[in-house]
Amino acid sequence: MEQGFFSFVLDHIAQFFQYTAFANMTIGHLVMIAIGLVFIYLAIAKEFEPMLLLPIGFGILIGNIAFVPGLKIGIYESGSVLNYLHFGVLQGIYPPLIFLGIGAMTDFSALISNPKLVLVGGAAQLGIFGAYAIALALGFTSSEAGAIGIIGGADGPTAIFLSSKLAPDLMGAIAISAYSYMALVPVIQPPIMKLLTTEKERTIKMKPPRAVSKTERIMFPIIGLLLTCLLVPSGLPLLGMLFFGNLLKESTVTKRLADTARGPLIDIVTILIGLTVGASTQATTFLTAKSIGIFVLGAVSFVIATCGGVLFVKFFNLFLKEGNKINPLIGNAGVSAVPDSARVSEVVGLEFDKSNHLLMHAMGCNVAGVIGSAVAAGILLSFLS
Amino acid sequence: MKILRFTTLAIALFFAGAASAQNASDLRINEVMVLNDSSVVDEYGNHVGWIEIFNTSYNTVNLSGLFVTDDMANPTKSMIAKSSAASIPPRSYFILYATGDKSVGVHHLTFNLKNSSMVALYDANGRTLIDSVSLPRLAANASFSRETDGGDKWTSKNLPTPNSSNWFQPFVGEVDQFKSLDPFGAGMAMIAMTIVLGALATLYFCFKIVGKIATRQKKTKPFIAKNAVTGEEASNEVNAAIALALFLHNKQEHDEEYTVLTMHKVSRNYSPWSSKIYGLRTRPGGYTSC
Q: CA A353: distance to chain centroid?
């Protein structure tokens, strides 16, 4: 009797063990958990994009706890809670909501006061199409290459939005790559900026931005929407929400709505998007040769984008009068990693002239980059979907 | 009379049998895939090797009871189950999945093709060979097929065409055309960068004009506040107050900023001349009231 009871207990303990993550763990899961821990470390200890890297890092841990399939636990299992939350990523719902919040946060005054900076935001999108070309050469399909190229826009929500439409299988790798390199902007960009500029160019002092009237600030989102979306309607989900959020802010009559968009709403969506994108990196689907290729291409696209922005400013300066010239150190801010790349411009500028503050000018390029990358995403979507 | 009846019946049965045999003989092995990783899946979602049978005739043919084998020494290796579902309409196709499982349905064979070097289709009697084909070594997801449906020439194809004409040209979508016409992405880069810069340049010109109008208005229209007091009416006290306000504004000493009112503590150095203690009324000592 006693022996029967003990064997019953042992059998059930053994059976329970089969359901634990220890029994189902693979090397891939362990690798992904290590990557998740690195993300969490970078977010907390180094404060690299903590709002994004922390949810993503923790999401990676959640997504890589191994389990027995069929229990409606995993993010890819139909009917699981994580699967429902992931729906917003797969269908491209979260990115436009984030753009609404970004619009409600962003002050376009720097751009309105010096509108030529908008062109720098366009030039930096070269990174997207450079990476697209290289991805094609490496054997990716056109749709995959387009989704990978958007990493060069340095815009997480745009990258998620486009990859969910063009290459849903690669979305996890693309999102992780985009956010990783956005966090590494202070490491990647300064050497390139210094390499491509002369001592004299780095100390160019730009005119302080003029005061922008309320009417101009209200007109900007309306005209911006009409001009960009009439040309590229496929950018509507992102640009429409961006400019709508900005109008909520600038009109000053919808303060409560603007506060919600730039506060609780964007916070909730950031949590959901970060966690589910992280959890979507399940080792079984994430650890492939393609993912490694995407990481390499992501770095390349950031380098090309930075070069594109800086070199464009140098080229543009050839046509500008003395006194109106642009400091090429703000060219890097044409990528839409707001406000990190603008901060990099400020820091590098101060290294060479303690009195030369470039932050406000760089912010102009930075917000132009947000518009530029959304337009580029719209173009890729219309050509490749 | 009996002899006549018997002869008529025999002739009728002969033609009926001949017709049936003629129907089965119209079938052809049309396409074969040995290693299937990403081609069609069976009704259970499995990727397995498959054999496509084509009905060359203009009649419906039922495959029930026919045999398929990959071993000429064993022609009855796998029988197609008797079922109305085993019919092929005229000029149509029937896929047999080499599952290796006996009990999964009419579309399934009892062997798999992993080690097969040939396949053959036998009539229901198990002796009459209808069609056979020797298989070359095939890569995964490649098929060996007739160039045209029921035709004589065979070829290996990287783009298999199960359940459709072997002449079928795979649909080349706009995206694939884009890649074939622009294999290095240079065209895409040129077109897209032109559009991006064009859109942003339009925005630039628009706001350049808006900015010019705004700055011109500022220069031409001085700001006059509501209920403002004009110079002629202003008294000296009002002028002094305006001058003080402008002075404080220019020295950045105003404390109201963007509707947020901040209050600063005013610090004063101690001086006995301004000390309250000397200003208090004290009761005079030594004096008594009357």
A: 31
Closest CB to A376 among B185, B192, B208:
B192
Q: Which residues of B touch A119 (CB under 8 A)?
A: 197, 200-201, 204
Residues of A in contact with B188 (CB under 8 A): 129, 132-133, 383
Predicted confidence (pLDDT) per residue in A49-88, tens digit: 788 889 999 999 998 988 877 777 888 887 889 999 999 9
Distance of residue A38 Cα from the nearest chain B Cα, in angstroms: 35
Residue in A closest to B193 by C-alpha? A126
Range of the domain at B251: 186-263
φ and ψ at B256, to 5 degrees? -105, 120
What is the number of CB-based contacts under 8 A between chain A and chain B? Answer: 120
Amino acid at A159: A
Residue A151 to residue A170: CA distance in whole angstroms: 12
pLDDT digits (tens, 9 = 90+) for A93-137: 999 999 999 999 988 888 898 888 889 988 989 999 999 999 998
The chain B residue lying nearest A115, using CA atoms, is B204
- Report the C-alpha gap between A345 and A360 in whole angstroms: 10
CA A150 to CA A137: how far, in whole Å?
Answer: 16
pLDDT at residue B262 in the model:
54
Task: Write the ipTM.
Answer: 0.84
The verdict on B100 and B209 lying in the same domain is no
Structural domain spans, chain A? 73-384
